[in-house]
Amino acid sequence: MASMTKSQFIGALGEKTGLSKKEVVSFMENLNELIYSECKSNGEITLPGMGKMVKKHREARMGRNPATGESIHIAAKTVLKFRIAKAAKDAIL
């Protein structure tokens, strides 16, 4: 079974909430903007019932090229992680 497309998601959310597609799109854009800015400034944001998005610094480390076995240096970087809430796990699984 294929996953929902963006337009199908917006349509389904509009039907459930009674909002027009234009209002749903505006809401989603504002929600995304809020999540991005909050995570960027505070390093994390909690979405109640869904989970927590966390910005984490990953230190530099030594790795191994699987094709050649050669040791390589992996640079430090910042990554995003999403931790699923227990309520979401219980509802889905």
Question: Would you write up a description of this structure?
Answer:
With 93 residues, the protein is α+β, with helices and mostly antiparallel strands. The protein folds into two domains: 1-42; 44-93, HU Protein, Chain A (Irregular). The chain contains three helices and five strands; from the N terminus they run ααβββββα. A three-stranded antiparallel beta sheet has the order 1-2-5. A two-stranded antiparallel ribbon has the order 3-4. α1 crosses α2 (21-42). The model has no long low-confidence stretch (mean pLDDT 94).
Brief descriptors of the model:
alpha+beta, three-stranded antiparallel beta sheet, two-stranded antiparallel ribbon, HU Protein, Chain A, 30% strand, elongated, 93 residues, 3 helices
Q: What's a concise summary of this model?
A:
With 93 residues, the chain is an alpha+beta fold. It contains 3 helices and 5 strands. The protein is elongated.
CATH topology of the largest domain: HU Protein, Chain A
CATH architecture of the largest domain: Irregular
Could you name the ranges where pLDDT drops below 50 across 5 or more consecutive residues?
Answer: none
- C-alpha geometry: elongated
Would you tell me the overall average pLDDT?
Answer: 94
Order of helices and strands: HHEEEEEH
* Radius of gyration, in angstroms, nearest whole number: 19 Å
> CATH superfamily name of the largest domain?
IHF-like DNA-binding proteins
Number of strands: 5
Kindly estimate the percentage of residues that lie in beta strands according to DSSP: 25-35%
Count of DSSP helices?
3
Major sheet attributes: 3 strands, antiparallel
Query: Mind telling me the CATH class of the largest domain?
Result: Few Secondary Structures
Number of domains: 2
Helix amount, in percent? 40-55%
